Amino acid sequence: MKLSFDLNGTTRSADVEPRTLLAHLLREQFGLTGTHIGCDTSQCGCCTVLLDGVAVKSCSLLAVQAQGRAVTTIEGLAAKLPAGELHPVQVAFTECHALQCGFCTPGMVMATVSLLRDQPQPSDAQIEQGLAGNLCRCTGYINIAKAVRQAAQVMRGSVAAGEAAR
Fold first, then answer.
1. Strands 48-51 vs 54-57: parallel, antiparallel or unpaired
2. Deepest in the core among 62, 83, 109, 124, taking most CB within 10 A?
């Protein structure tokens, strides 16, 4: 089956079997290994990507469901920024030490981007709800929530990156 969709800002096409999962297409045909596969049951969230701006678990989505749509992976998050710059959520995760092993980080970052698109000034309960389904086995979530709050401030323009971490 021929598939065509926007991948990180570029129209891409691929031949896929109807049963191919989006996560496998991204990793195996396009080499975008930032989309991790952790549980194969859609429980951990490390495969989270944006589909038309909304966080989805790519291990539970058929690749054909992306037909004609926009998919953004962790690799494409900063695609529209000047070379070498990171998305404010990526910066916040770094500055707030919101990662340890890093396996869950791409999914957490993508879930955060989706959350902040819908809730630019999220409450703690909204942060918890927005990240539900994205599991971290290392950090205890405290610094992840701190990073979400910092990114929200930076993206709203209330503080500059680097200042919010102080």
1. antiparallel
2. 109
CA angle 99, 61, 139 (to 5 degrees): 15
Q: Where are the alpha helices (DSSP H) in 14-164?
A: 22-24, 88-95, 105-118, 124-131, 142-156
Q: What backbone torsions phi and psi does residue 21 show, to the nearest 5 degrees?
A: -80, 145
pLDDT in tens, 117-149: 999 999 999 999 999 999 998 888 999 999 999
pLDDT tens, position by position, 38-53: 987 889 999 999 999 9
- In three-state secondary structure terms, 18 is coil
Q: Is 25 helix (H, G, I), strand (E, B) or coil?
A: helix
State the distance between the two ends of the chain, measured CA to CA, in whole angstroms: 51
| Cα-only R_g, the chain | 16
Burial of 103 (0-12, 13-18, 19+ CB in 10 A): middle
CA nearest to 135, candidates 71, 59, 50, 39: 39
Of the CA atoms within 13 Å of residue 1, those in its CB half-sphere come to 13
